[in-house]
Specification:
Layout (H helix, E strand, L loop, with lengths): L1 H31 L6 H27 L18 H29 L4 H22 L18
Helix pairs in contact: 1-2, 1-4, 2-3, 3-4
Bound molecules: protoporphyrin IX containing FE (HEM).
Protoporphyrin IX containing FE binds next to α1, α2 and α3.
Length: 156
């Protein structure tokens, strides 16, 4: 089951990135062209929220009970902050991803509020952009030393 969840966590990253880019595009074009906030916009933001929350839940499981989970393996003898691998997967990756999911959640809450449409688009735009930056920084891209992971499941 762990392998399946890890593969799903890997794949969902791409779905989340695509949905985030789409949400950013919709927020930008809505704000720029002074559009009316539409059910389509709301749906795109909702799917982005669902993808983010699903990966958050899978991530929480991997973090605690996955093959390198905090409750599964002992902490490194040199200390967590001295081991690049543990520091990344136990602290940096979860912390930055949780922050990005909070921002995506706040963006969706903006969509549901009674606010002028231009405010919805502008706030959503900034929240999604910052969330995207956090996610891009916190992904264990294959080219990263010590922590690199495959582009897709089964590639590495
Ligand atoms: C929501 C946005 C997230 C994205 C886009 C994301 C992305 C990724 C990716 C691409 C990997 C590498 C997968 C692989 O090796 O094939 C990974 C691994 C991992 N992620 Fe996340 N992650 C997210 C959230 C989280 C959260 C919130 C946590 C913890 C609370 C977490 C914990 C982990 C752990 C522990 C691993 C390593 C698992 C292992 O190798 O067994 N992730 N993540």
């Amino acid at each position: 089951m762990d392998k399946g969840l890890l593969d799903l966590h890997n794949l969902l990253r791409w779905i989340l990135l695509i949905l985030l880019l789409l949400s950013i595009y919709k927020a930008y074009s809505g704000w720029k062209n002074k559009k009316v906030f539409s059910p389509g916009d709301r749906k795109t933001w909702l799917f982005t929220l669902i993808a983010a929350h699903t990966n958050l839940l899978i991530g929480l499981y991997l973090w605690l009970w996955g093959r390198f989970g905090m409750l599964k393996i002992p902490a490194p003898p040199e200390g967590v902050t001295k081991s690049k691998f543990h520091l990344f997967f136990w602290i940096e990756h979860p912390a930055m991803m949780i922050l990005s999911v909070i921002m995506i959640t706040l963006a969706y809450r903006v969509a549901k509020k009674t606010l002028p449409d231009s405010t919805k688009y502008a706030r959503g735009l900034w929240l999604f952009i910052v969330a995207l930056l956090f996610i891009l920084v916190a992904i264990p891209w294959p080219f990263r030393h010590d922590i690199g992971r495959p582009w897709l499941p089964g590639m590495g």
